[in-house]
Amino acid sequence: MLFGPAGYAYVYFIYGNHYCLNVSCEREGNAGSVLFRALEPLCGIEEMARARGISLLGARDLLRLTSGPGRLARAFNVTRARDNGCDLTSPASGLWIGEDGSRARNIQITSRIGITKAADHPLRFFLAGNPWVSGKKHVIGAPRAPAT
Fold first, then answer.
1. Is 106 helix (H, G, I), strand (E, B) or coil?
2. In whole angstroms, what is the distance from residue 6 CA to residue 24 CA?
3. Are 113 and 125 in contact (CB under 8 A)?
4. What is the pLDDT of residues 69-93, one digit of tens each?
5. What percent of the chain has pLDDT over 70?
6. Own/partner pairs for 9-17, CB < 8 Å, 24+ apart?
7. Can you give the C-alpha Rg of the chain in angstroms?
8. Secondary structure class of 20 (helix, strand, coil)
9. Which of 17-30 are b and which e, b meaning 16 or more Cβ less than 10 Å from the residue's Cβ?
């Protein structure tokens, strides 16, 4: 599904223990997808915690529920066998992206993280100040801490 059509799940297994969920975003035949790195859980929180095998004892546990691509996929029970190729635009699908009428504000753009090839491209988008954002939270043009 990495090569389209747009709107379909592309699921891959990484590090021998994590699935990652992407949505294809290019025309059929062209490679391109968006990785879901994190999300703010609004409902189904208890089911997600069960799927992750964790207890929600405090705010930190809730923040870690879906913060990170592996955690997010596990919280939704995403597997390559079941979900790769799933139509994420159809409510009839077991996994789909729905419109809720809200409009994101304060979208920040940074360089990508966790990769080496073209890592400096500004292709990472997130809501500034949202505690569920995973990874580095610097903004392009903003001062960055020196690499260690």
1. coil
2. 5
3. no
4. 999 999 999 999 999 999 999 999 9
5. 91
6. 9/78, 9/83, 9/84, 9/85, 9/86, 9/87, 9/88, 9/95, 10/84, 11/73, 11/78, 11/79, 11/80, 11/83, 11/84, 12/80, 13/80, 14/70, 15/70, 17/70
7. 16
8. strand
9. ebbbbbbbeeeeee
Its pTM stands at 0.82
Q: Which candidate, 40, 39, 48, places its Cα nearest to that of 21?
A: 39
34 contacts: CB under 8 Å, gap ≥ 6: 22, 23, 25
Residue type, 116: T
Query: Which DSSP string do the residues of 69-103 spell out, in sequence order?
Result: HHHHHHHTT--HHHHTT-BTT-TTSSS-----S--
Q: How crowded is residue 66: how many other Cβ atoms within 10 Å of its Cβ?
A: 24
Structure-block tokens of residue 123: 């292709």
Tokens found for residue 81: 């066998």
